[in-house]
Amino acid sequence: MLNAIGSGIDLSDGEASDYYYLVADLLESETVKQMQDYIHHGDTTCFQHCLNVSYYNYKVCRFFSLNARAGARAGLLHDLFLYDWHTYKRKKGERLHGFTHAKTALKNVREHFYVSDLESDMIEKHMFPLNITALPKYRETLVIVLVDKYCGLIETVIPRAKKLSSLIVKLGARFGKASAKE
Ligand SMILES: [Fe+2]
Ligand SMILES: [Fe+2]
């Protein structure tokens, strides 16, 4: 089952088929599948993060009558940097993953797939305003800037909230046992 965070829809089937057909070739690509090997935010892999951004980009672009195909495709490819940025920093002495990975992703994407000017702009500038000089040229680029940050936030917050609530449940059970003994 292929689904975006917060959505119960199987993206490879039925209702979501409009979305699936736009990205089927990318989803079947071994290069895109490599993103499953790297954790991005919390316990979310790079692949799942890109799928989340791709699906919500598609939905938002479609809602505003923008280019939903570019939204779906650029979303799925926007973080194709293909390394573990948590350890890469230490190994390479790189401190600037946030500033450099969008260009690395676009370079990798161009080696493997055809991308339009619009899709290239969306991938290269998705970190705006962190990369303040990479000004979005299209409205779809503004969409990916916002959707990427929204998905990153949800992916980071949800696992922490789950851990916190299970800790509260465990502490509650422990205090419950202690007060029952008294
Ligand atoms: Fe990114
Ligand atoms: Fe991202």
* Global outline: globular
Mean pLDDT equals: 89
What's the Cα radius of gyration?
A: 19 Å
Please report the number of helical segments: 8
Poorly predicted regions: none
Largest sheet: 2 strands, antiparallel
Q: Report, as a whole number of angstroms, the end-to-end distance.
A: 49 Å
Residue fraction in strands: under 5%
Q: What would your notes on this structure say?
A:
The chain has 182 residues and is an all-alpha fold. It has one domain: Hypothetical protein af1432, CATH 1.10.3210.10. The protein is built from 8 helices and 2 strands. It has helices spanning 17-27, 30-33, 46-63, 68-77, 85-92, 97-112, 117-124, 139-181, and strands spanning 39-41, 44-45. A two-stranded antiparallel sheet has the order 1-2. A hairpin with a 2-residue loop joins strand 1 (39-41) and strand 2 (44-45). Helix 3 crosses helix 8 and helix 7 crosses helix 8. The N and C termini lie far apart (49 Å).
